[in-house]
Amino acid sequence: xxxxxxxxxxxxxxxxxxxxxxxxxxxxxxxxxxLFSGAEMAxxxxxxxxxxxxxxxxxxxxxxxxxxxxxxxxITKTLGKQPDFEKWEVVVFDxxxxxxxxxxxxxxxxxxxxxxxxKNQDQLAAVIGHEIAHVQANHSNExxxxxxxxxxxxEISKVAIEGSEYQELGMAALGxxxxxxxxxxxxxxxxxxSDVLGLQLMNKAGFDAKQSVELWKNMAKASGGNEPMEFLSxxxxxxxxxxxxxxxxxxxxKAAKTRPSCKI
Length: 264
Fold this sequence. Notes:
The protein is mainly alpha-helical.
């Protein structure tokens, strides 16, 4: 009995020491537990992105690709050199899904269906800025680390290093759900954090931050009022999201003088 108690104590102490070395702060000051290196997360992002490119239809429309690349580049240029990859890669998927994503390793994906809701360059920048913010704030690492601590452990950690039969769990940690063909939600705190950080990114790139509010109004219309009640969803409600964005816009510095000119 004493031995079991000692082993439990040692295990708890080891976990505490491990976590004490992995607790960091997000860009907004929120505490995070990050168990994986940036290089491991970048490798997972690259693996996932390559698989998606192989399995999904890529848009061949030059104007659409040029437009999405223009908006993405305007934002990524404000970030400077990244520690875990050389350059950003942007791909447009030919699909009616109203979606976009960014992955560790500098991978950005935009579905053509989004362009029916994001009506102009500023609204598209709001979405892309939001998705890039997930990467900059280490949200995928945070989700993967939480899954490991919850008991998926060694199985999920393999995904970040070499891929495995647990790949879908790893992709869920990235905010993706291949089996459904849609984005799986991040947590509310992560979503709200990315809203604010994405707003800052698009503003710094010279886009009109106020258009982020118009984007979510469009999203609300596109959903037909069928979004789940907020307390049943990991996402903030459209109303809450809009209110939070309107408050955040008031504290933004002046946008860059050079305004992007991205047209489709």
